[in-house]
Amino acid sequence: MDVSRQCIRSLEVLRLPVDQWDAHLYYVLSVKMDPDSKILWEQSLQNSSIPLLKSLFDFLEQRARALSTRDEESTKGKFNKVSVTNNIQQHKSRGSSNVHHASSSKCLFCNESNHFYFKCQTCLQWSQAQRSEAVKKHGLCYNCIKSGHGVSQCPSAKSCKTCGSKHHTFLHRETVPQGTVPATSKSNTESTSYHSMKHTPPNFDTILATALISVMDQHGQLHPCRAFLDNGSNSYFVTESFVRKLGVKKIHQPTHSTGLGGQPVCSSSGYTELSIRSRFDNNYSYDIIPLIVKKISNSLPMFDHDPSKWPHLQDLPLADPMWHRPQQVDMLLGADIFFSILREGKKTGLINGPIAINTEFGWLVGGGTHSVTSHNQSVVNITNSRDSSLIQALERFWEIEDIPAVKILTQEEQSCENHFKSTYNRSTDGRFILKLPFKPTHLPLGNSFHTAQKQLHALEKRLATQVSKKDEYIKFMREYESLGHMQEIAASTSESDCKSTYYIRHHMVTKETSSTTKYRVVFNASSKTFKGPFLNETLMVGPTIQDPLVDILLSFRLHKYVFTADIAKMYRQIQVAPEDLSYQRILWRESSSLPIKHYQLNTVTYGTAPVPRFTTPQFSLFTFHAAFSKKCKVKSWSVSPKKQTPNNFTPHN
Fold it and tell me: Are the CB atoms for 228 and 330 separated by under 8 Å?
């Protein structure tokens, strides 16, 4: 309700017809009401006409007081049940005072009605110590500011929004360091000094020259514009809101402007071209190119003045008739315009009074120090510190966003890495021979023969109706055997051999877009077994070593020309150790009329868990370098975490 009223007041400040929006605002507020309050509101309506917004606010205030009373009664009842063994007379007296307070709806601290404690102007002016003393005096809870219980028995789940402790934000106490921390301290704050001073603004205001001019829009129409004339600026500025009002073309070019001390004071999104004229004589026109900014300054002047105090300003054609009223500034005109519009003529009055200067835009009023009525006071706390904890927080933020230079491996991933480094071998023709990375502790494999046999029968039935795919399947398996990647072995289906053997199921996949292999046989080492785990359950996967896909895509932006390649049969270039070949068996026959044959796969099989580790770009590079460095004369070889190949060429699968 308070937020709604604040929004409405903001709209009124913008001079919008809020008083005519009762129907619209009523709908917006009624949608946000809870169901019970909405029912009570509908019951309170006397007729079908649209109610006033004020009546809705009155109802909501009454509803809020009723709910506050109910919460206090509920809290008091719960506390009486829990603390039945405590001092009954004390709680009764507190309970009776609560009832009296709720019924009268008076503030706990000033005894005035129609507002809550957190809106009490008297209480808001108190210090934290005075508020705590008042809460203690009334026997209230430090967490919810209600009576009948203490902080330890407080049913409210809320806490201080500033520090998170178990007390009300209303009672939060800022921790102020005692003294100055010396520069040699070993704490996070290297050197800190604290100062406090009470400052009253000086009771005077200096008038800055403003003028009301005419600016032409894109259709040739003139619009009034309040301009601030600054003879200390060598640039022109205009606000974004005024540019939108004119509808002129905006040229995007970000620019930073510097001010006192050479420090950046504002940034502009671009510039535009405008034609300005005097409202007294259209012959005095200037074409300017101002920078576009969101805001030029606060309202000028800072305070309202009485122009009748200065008779020398009366009956003059002023450049800004409302120079004495604080209003927004739409444009800033620099020294070029300021000195171009000057004419002969100057009006002065009393000492420390404003001065009028004659210009083409009219008489400019400025200067002077004028007494104003101001009772505003402000307390300024200045902290000059070099806090290393802030720097550390920023460093941690960037470290979180940064890509780690070294990947932290899990225990299993590290074990898999150690297994590869300690067990790999080389054949006579230079090919690598690797052992399967079994987990240190795993259950024995189950019987996989019967599952593989059923899969083969189902595959034969499916291929019997697809002659072209069957021919490709047979061609693939023949090539697989002719290359030595698989070989026929004697059948062995005894129960004792089941624990050390695994029959892999296989099927065909079609990929028409492939440039090397359109039809491929895929092996499934995750097929279930009888009373035991399958092969992939017993193998370690290992870490992902290849570059992230994002890095690969971004690397395409580093070079003008990029080559991509697909290595044919890459998985099958690495052999499996002979002692592990029994775990890579398959069943196959070219025709259902032939007996089923047993084969073992001699190379790394796609479909097993550690295949990505076998064939990552980093491992492929190591294989390429180790196998061919003796046969090829490589003049230079550079290996880095991001570019792992000579001549910046990275092979990817």
Answer: no
Question: pLDDT tens digits for 562-618?
Answer: 888 777 777 788 889 999 898 899 999 999 899 999 999 999 888 888 776 665 544
- For position 193, what pLDDT does the model report? 44
Residues 314, 86: Cα–Cα separation, whole Å: 80
What is the distance between the alpha carbons of residues 332 and 235, in angstroms, rounded to a whole number?
8
Residue appearing with tokens 């399967």 = 436
**Residue 34 contacts residue 49 (beta carbons within 8 Å):** no
List the beta strands (DSSP E) in 533-610: 575-576, 585-588, 597-601
The number of angstroms, rounded, from the C-alpha of 610 to the middle of its chain's C-alpha atoms is: 37
The whole-number pLDDT of residue 102 equals 36
Provide the token pair at 604.
């790394």
For residues 337 and 286, the answer to whether their CB atoms sit within 8 Å is: yes
Q: Mark 629-644 as b/e (b = at least 16 C-beta within 10 Å).
A: eeeeeeeeeeeeeeeb
Which residues does residue 239 pair with via DSSP β-bridges, in sequence order? Answer: 293
State residue 185's pLDDT score. Answer: 39
Q: Are 646 and 636 in contact (CB under 8 A)?
A: yes
Sort residue 159 into left (φ over 0), alpha (ψ -120 to 50) or beta.
Answer: beta
Beta strands (DSSP E) in 163-232 are: 189-199, 204-207, 210-216, 222-229
Pairing of strands 237-239, 291-293: parallel
**Which ranges constitute the DSSP H helices of 465-529?**
467-482, 495-498
Residue 426 to residue 284: CA distance in whole angstroms = 92
Residues of the chain with CATH 2.40.70.10: 204-371
In a 13 Å sphere around the CA of 591, the CA atoms on its Cβ side amount to 2
Structure tokens, 268? 């502009």
Residue 640, Cα to own-chain centre: how many angstroms? 33
Torsion of the alpha carbons at 364, 367, 371 and 373, rounded to the nearest 10: 60
Can you read off the two tokens belonging to residue 375? 């009772």
- 107 by Cβ neighbours in 10 Å (0-12 / 13-18 / 19+) ranks as buried
Burial class from Cβ neighbours inside 10 Å (0-12, 13-18, 19+) for residue 34 reads exposed
* Among candidate residues 74, 62, 57, the one with its CA nearest the CA of residue 144: 74
Architecture per CATH, domain 204-371, reads as Beta Barrel (2.40)
Tokens of 89: 């007379």
Residues of the chain with pLDDT under 50: 78-105, 176-201, 373-385, 617-618, 620-621, 623, 627, 629-653
Q: Taking the alpha carbons of 639, 643, 648, 653 in that order, is the dihedral positive or negative? A: positive
Q: Is the pTM of this model over 0.90?
A: no
What is the per-residue pLDDT across 545-558, written as a single tens digit (0 to 9) for each? 677 788 788 888 88
Residue 638 near residue 647, CB atoms below 8 Å: no
Classify 551 as helix, strand or coil: helix
Task: Tell me how far apart the alpha carbons of residues 64 and 155 are, in angstroms, rounded to a whole number.
Answer: 20
Question: What CA dihedral angle connects 475, 476, 477 and 481, to 10 degrees?
Answer: 100
How remote is the C-alpha of 313 from its chain's centroid? 56
